[in-house]
Amino acid sequence: MRREVKQPNEKLKYQREIRGWSQKKIGMSIGTSKDMVSRWETGERSPGRFYQEKLCALFQLSAIELGFLEPPKAAEGSIASPSESSALPVSAQDQSQKDTPRETGGPVLDLSRRHVLKGMLQVACTTLVLSPYIMLHADAPHQLEYHLTHSSVVDASVLDDLDNVTQRYWKLSQNFSFEVFSGVIGHFQTVTALLHRSQPVSTAKRLSEIAGEVAQIIGKILFDFHEYDLAWSYYAFSLSAAQTAGNADLWAVGLGRMSLLHIEKHQPQDALTLLVASQKLAIQQSGTRAWLACIQAEAHSQLEDLEAFTRAIERAESIAPEVLSDNDRYATGFSPSRLAGYKGSGYLQLKKADLALGALQTAESLVNSSSLRRKSVILADMGTAYAGLGEGQKASETAYQSLTIIRHVRSLSSLQRVYALRAALQPWETAAWVHELDHHIHEVYKEITAEPVASLL
Fold it and tell me: Hey, what's the signal peptide range on this chain (predicted)?
């Protein structure tokens, strides 16, 4: 019996090395180990479809470019030229979106717009890898003169202005998605264009930090659009930027948001893997640590592990007194209301409607009046709890309250919570008020998607 010869994946290894990324960094970014990445590169193992898609999203390259598939052959038997294949990667999820409508009524971004966003990110990834080292290699006098006369070095006041704009977008993104999307994209292009120029290392690091923040805002908005593959890619960029800048909190929040993507896709074990990685970082902000504990609780509730869920919530509660409400740089939204909301949604997952309702009522009583999107989620979850307790019409009333807010904030993620509420109303399926609610939900969805996101790019 002939032993199968290992085929090292030189393409994957090359793409990692030219970016200056370690095998450990790759593993942490996609939720696996350094050893597994090493096995993929040596050919001892081949990544499955799940990790292939993650690697394609992380590198912003196709499966062919990363060595997972052989290039297609032309009719004459020769290998197709690079120009014959797509210049931008298309994941399996993108491919399926051409023909398969989403549960919420169809794709929000068309394929060409996804390619625009992917192309933008691909350019940004290149600048992030190169920029911190550009000034270090200007050894010859003529090289130094070139940098001084042909590049625009960003001074502290410009960095402060960029930082202030970023902070405003963080705040706006808590309640708005559609309305700020084009502005955030423009801001991202501005920051990454400055990164591409020759800068002192300290300036390049701060620009990397700002770029990582803006990428996370974009990912957060794309998450709200249900563009999960694109959101993952921008979060992955944010992790790289945070590592370059040496910002553990930004890195940890990025891992937290990636974990929420896994939870949304009902992959709680993958979420927990990333959350364990986040705990190894030197996180400075207590609010970040408490928020990550809440996400961990949510993952455990999806696994129906009441004991682990309770431990994670208790850990968040123990940290909560240390949290300063005005120190939420990365818009985690952690607060006493948020903590109670996570507890309530977890109890819903664990099918404990009475405990869920009590926690959610606390969350509603504590929620800030300006946190409209958060209130819409709390109300939708309260409706689900009422349905679980047999109070169908009360559930319907809270659904209408949630939908009224969703009309203003135009959040597909919030609307998804109302869909979960509607599913809980199955016992009252034939009631007239349920049919009226269905009509209202449909009308709100049409209003939210009336202005295509594509027009905002």
Answer: none
